[in-house]
Amino acid sequence: MADTCGQVLLGSGLTVLSHPLMYIKVLVQVGHEPLPPTLGRNLFGRQVYQLPGLFAYAKHIIKIDGKSGLFNGLAPRLCAGTIGTIVHSRVLQKSQESKFEVVGGGWKAEEGSLQHVVNETTREMIARSCATVVTHPFHVITLRCMVQFIGREAKYSGVFDSIITVYREEGFLGFFAGLVPRLLGDVLSLWICNILAHLINTYAIDDSMSHTSEIKNCSQAVTGFLASMLTYPFVLVSNLMAVSNCGLAGGLPPYAPIYPTWLDCWSHLSREGNMSRGNSLFFRKLPVGKTYAIDQKRFF
Fold first, then answer.
1. Over pLDDT 70: what percentage of the chain?
2. Is the distance from CB of 82 to CB of 12 less than 8 angstroms?
3. 144, exposed or middle or buried, with CB in 10 Å at 0-12, 13-18, 19+?
4. What is residue 105's predicted lDDT score, i.e. its pLDDT?
5. Sheet bearing 284-285, strands edge to edge
6. Which residues contact residue 245 at a Cβ distance below 8 angstroms, ignoring those fewer than 6 apart?
7. Mean pLDDT, range 162-185, rounded to an integer
8. Average pLDDT over every residue of 138-164
9. Which of 15, 76, 259, 297 could bridge across to 265 with cysteines, CB 3.0–4.6 Å?
10. Parallel/antiparallel/unpaired status of strands 38-41 and 47-51
11. Would you say 74 and 16 are in contact if contact means Cβ atoms under 8 Å apart?
């Protein structure tokens, strides 16, 4: 219990610190570009037109809503983080107590073996999936509180009021808009990360090397980063589906199309070449073949 409380406190602190970054990332993901491109330099020193980065975007939000405006949607996100940590911890504990094994259930798998990695990854997948499903309604509310910035609405003003609004307008299923691509992305990212890390640690790192444990930890971090890059389109599609056709300007035409399913959203983004939109908040290049619309503050 003490460990869970510590995780909740640490997670809450990190959530508060990272919230402005997530807020700006979500606005970029939905295509909101309030500032026109400016002439700057890329990594190689060449002059190119670039989109405003993290700090310019943050200054724009502060100019309109003040510093507190950077924390729109923080309350439901804290709720999601707290509940998710508790659910994840409880489910993981139960699976370990029941000695749940996917392969080799008759004996204990040797630590570091592929069998051990598969069993541990499966337990983690179940725990994460349960936490994601339980907390997704708060995730949806968080995203909609953020996207309100585009149309200057105040439809989602508090956690409880937002819950009532979603249920009244969209029913129970409204709380789970964008859940499927989010779950798929989480599961794929976890398996890619753990399997790649296992292969690297087993076949590329010699146990006789010095600082072996540090190198293995580094490989886990690298594979985690690679997995998150590969599965980023699922995150983008999930977030867009969570705000699509929800009554906010940022999720309705003419600003944004209405997607019947998440596969339609994926297909549209792929055709437009926007599968990585919002993936980077620095050195942001202009979309190829797009025109900036000053009145709508986005590219077409």
1. 89
2. yes
3. buried
4. 55
5. 38-41, 47-51, 284-285
6. 251, 252, 258, 259
7. 96
8. 95
9. 259
10. antiparallel
11. yes
CA–CA gap between residue 20 and residue 72 (Å, rounded)? 8
pLDDT in the model for residue 244: 95
Average pLDDT, whole number, for the chain?
A: 88
Question: Cα separation of 41 and 49, whole Å?
Answer: 8
Under a CB-based contact definition with an 8 Å cutoff, are residues 65 and 20 in contact?
A: no
Q: Is the peptide bond before 254 cis (omega within 30 degrees of 0)?
A: yes
Name the nearest CA neighbour of 187 among 129, 114, 134: 129
3 state SS for 96-132? HHCCCCCCCCCCCCCCCCHHHHHHHHHHHHHHHHHHH
Alpha-carbon span 139 to 211, nearest angstrom: 40
Q: Are 120 and 220 in contact (CB under 8 A)?
A: no
Residues recorded for the chain: 300
Euclidean distance between CA atoms 189 and 128, whole angstroms: 12
pLDDT digits (tens, 9 = 90+) for 47-86: 777 888 899 999 999 999 999 999 999 999 999 999 999 9
Backbone angles phi, psi at 246, to 5 degrees: -105, 5
Closest by Cα among 77, 70, 41 to 55: 70
Bridge partners of 41?
A: 47
Buried-exposed string 15-53: b where 16+ CB fall within 10 A, e elsewhere: beeebbebbbbbbbbbbbbbeebeeeeeeeeeeeebbbb
pLDDT score recorded for residue 107? 53
